[in-house]
Amino acid sequence: MVCGEAIAVNATKTEILWFGSETNLRKLLPANRVISVGQSVIQPVTVVLDLGVLIDGELSMRQHVTKYHRHETVFSEFDHVLH
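Request: output the structure for the sequence above.
Response:
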């Protein structure tokens, strides 16, 4: 970043996701998990949705697989009834 320029951040649309093992993530103190941007405080989340993919801090994709596998199973059962 060039000195004197600033990045515009919309705090209502900004999310923080910390990456690491479950053990290391537990070591983060609550006060160190938030980030202040101007007058806004950005709270961390455990999962973000980016380009249709649910990503968690451990990169396990557990939530993504659970959500989309459930939808796929329902669709497969419905598709089977139609044919």
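Residues 22-82 form one domain.
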